[in-house]
Design a protein that fits this description.
The chain is built from nine helices and 20 strands. With about 475 residues, the chain is an alpha+beta fold. Helix 5 runs antiparallel to helix 9.
Length: about 475
């Protein structure tokens, strides 16, 4: 067994001239001197043009042609094992087959090797590198993966935060709707109670009128029965008398009986009967009030009406706007419109005069299309592109649908033709800014058409576009109530 002195002497022989410590990943340069790979790499850093010189003999060497000294690495390994306390520590794994320290990594087999494994010949044709050198590119790959994973995690966290805010907004809206429902039904309950009292009082009066006319009818009928009973008794008595008495005043008696006409009273007067028949009409105000209540309730549970007008400063010159800025029609004749940064110059579009930065709003657009014409309706970001070609898609700040002759399309990242029961003539657009919903439906049939989901951070404006001679649109408020 080697003595401590011989081991110490060998340790001095395997000392790096640069760091004065035991060689780590020893490499040999052109002049034959050995150094730690890391020390030599740091030594070469910052050198000027031309090959660097050996730290010992100053002989030039090629920095890219460093040769790993496997034998010397094995000697270092043995020396470290012979020194006291040189057994592999907890962080230094040993080769399971040879018990030697793991120095190398085979790229082909993805296996960690000791000096014995490396010299055994099984990996002779493989790419073998020192562990740290082999680990470095993988560290770089890991760092790239970490960057991407952290970025994706941040995106998921942003989505989580946005969706949680959206949920809170929805919960607040539901609480508000609950209060609205309770309030409206309280008013309705009070109104119904009042109407119930009024209608019952009217029915009570009709009931009294009927009983009063029944008494009058019974009195008249009793009088008529009494008179007819008297005549009947008189004739019965007359018929039983002798002929001489029977013939006395017989003609006047018969004439009096024959000319006696029966009065046929009515139990209910025509006027009272008409009042009874007309009574359901007295409930018409109640019916109208309940209908109005339901419409108001449904609307208040939905969105606030947005009374909007078109902004002539943004209108394309081919759009002819009405004086009240409530209608627009396509015209091949260019209008005299001074150019400005706000005006669309390629897309025949126009924005509303005012936008929204919050809240829930709805408006209705009546569309009038000529053959081959089309109309685009939706919302757009305030910084939407006004000059040049405008891409009608959410990525460009436009959330809209297009009504064309015979079909309707949702203008998403890829336009999607929608299957609808009927072509809408009136389109309701509803915006929920906080939740991020842009909803379209048929304002007449209430058929849902499409809903965009977005995350609004800037002001958005009602957006309109029309194309085709004779085609146009108008802002309508009848469908919004």
């Amino acid at each position: 067994m080697a003595s401590a002195a011989s081991v110490s002497s060998l340790a001095e022989e395997v000392t790096c001239p640069i760091c004065q410590a035991t060689l780590r990943e020893p490499v040999t340069i052109d002049c034959g001197h050995n150094f730690c790979r890391g020390c030599l790499a740091r030594y070469c850093e910052g050198r000027g043009a031309g090959p660097p010189g050996c730290p010992l003999c100053k002989e030039p060497f090629r920095a890219r042609a460093l040769r790993p000294n496997w034998q010397l690495a094995g000697v270092v390994e043995h020396i470290e094992r012979l020194q006291p306390g040189a057994a592999p520590g907890p962080a230094e794994e040993a080769c399971a087959q040879h018990g030697e320290k793991l120095y190398f990594f085979c790229e082909d087999d993805e296996a960690q090797l000791c000096v014995v494994c490396r010299e055994a010949g099984l990996h002779g044709a493989h790419t073998v590198r020192f562990l740290e050198a082999a680990a470095e590119p993988y560290r770089e790959q890991i760092q790239k993966c970490l960057v991407n994973l952290r970025k994706e995690r941040e995106e998921i966290q942003e989505i989580q935060s946005r969706e949680n805010k959206r949920i809170q907004v929805l919960l607040t809206q539901v609480a508000t709707k609950r209060q609205q429902v309770m309030s409206e039904f309280a008013h309705l309950s009070q109104f119904l109670e009042e109407q119930r009292g009024i209608l019952l009082a009217q029915l009570e009066k009709l009931d009294g009128d009927i009983l009063e006319q029944q008494e009058e009818f019974d009195r008249l009928v009793a009088g008529e029965i009494c008179r007819f009973s008297t005549l009947i008794e008189e004739l019965e008595e007359k018929s039983e008398r002798p002929a001489s008495e029977l013939l006395t005043d017989i003609r006047s008696t018969l004439i009096r009986c024959e000319t006696r006409k029966c009065r046929k009273p009515e139990a209910v007067s025509p006027e009272l009967g008409q009042q009874i028949r007309d009574f359901p009409r007295r409930a018409l105000p109640l019916q109208r009030e309940v209908k109005s209540f339901l419409e108001k309730l449904c609307f208040e549970l939905d969105y606030e009406p947005a009374h909007i007008s078109l902004d002539p400063q943004t209108s394309h010159p081919k759009l002819l706007l009405s004086e009240d800025h409530q209608r627009a029609r396509f015209s091949y004749k260019w209008q005299i419109s001074p150019d400005s940064p706000q005006r669309f110059d390629r897309a025949t579009c126009v924005l509303a005069l005012r936008g929204f930065t919050g809240g829930r709003h709805t408006w209705v657009v009546s569309v009038d299309l000529a053959h081959g014409g089309s109309c685009t309706v939706g919302v757009a970001s305030g910084d939407v592109q006004r000059k040049g070609e405008l891409r009608l898609r959410p990525e460009a700040g436009v959330w809209a649908v297009r009504l064309a002759w015979g079909f309707v399309s949702a203008l998403g990242s890829f336009p999607t033709r929608l299957a609808l029961e009927e072509q809408p003539r009136q389109l309701r657009v509803s915006l929920d800014y906080e939740v991020g919903w842009v909803t379209f439906c048929n304002a007449v049939t209430q058929e849902h058409i499409y809903t965009f989901t977005a995350s609004f951070t800037r002001e958005v404006f009602p957006f309109f576009g029309v194309w085709g001679r004779g085609s146009g649109f108008s802002l309508s408020y009848e469908g919004a109530a």
